[in-house]
Amino acid sequence: MLRIWKATINSRNGLAFAFRSEQAVREEIFALLVSLPLAWFIGATAMRAVELVCAVAFVLTVELLNTAIEKLADRLTLDHDKQIGRVKDMGSAAVGVALLMAGAFWIFAIVERLGFV
């Protein structure tokens, strides 16, 4: 139980630091909070609503991983390094793919709600 408690505290601390230091994390947490009631309105079923919220939570998860990569890379060096730049770009691409996926889920759910599927 102590290990679980310490892991929970570490997770809270990481989320709090990311929230304070990254605008993108703040925006995605806001999007997650907005998605909670909106998903229940748009989702045709309870399961669809859960999927919509999870899609937004997935974007936040990928953003947190991207932020961790960027912070670690900046810790290694602040000088321009081509390889580190590529690594940061790949992290950014991962966020972009997650956003596209979430957008597709939401568009499908809206189309479904409107009765076109």
TrEMBL record:
Catalytic residues (UniProt) = E63
Catalysed transformations (reactions): a 1,2-diacyl-sn-glycerol + ATP = a 1,2-diacyl-sn-glycero-3-phosphate + ADP + H(+)
List, separated by semicolons, the cofactors it needs: Mg(2+)
For this protein, the record's Pfam families field holds: DAGK_prokar
- Nucleotide-binding recorded as keyword: yes
| Residue positions binding a divalent metal cation | E22, E70
Question: Which one of the record's GO molecular function terms can you name?
Answer: metal ion binding
- Where do the TM regions start and end? 90-111
User: Known EC number(s)?
Assistant: 2.7.1.107
Q: Subcellular localization, per the record?
A: Cell inner membrane
Q: What does this protein do?
A: Catalyzes the ATP-dependent phosphorylation of sn-l,2-diacylglycerol (DAG) to phosphatidic acid. Involved in the recycling of diacylglycerol produced as a by-product during membrane-derived oligosaccharide (MDO) biosynthesis.
Q: What is this protein called?
A: Diacylglycerol kinase
Which source organism? Answer: Bradyrhizobium sacchari
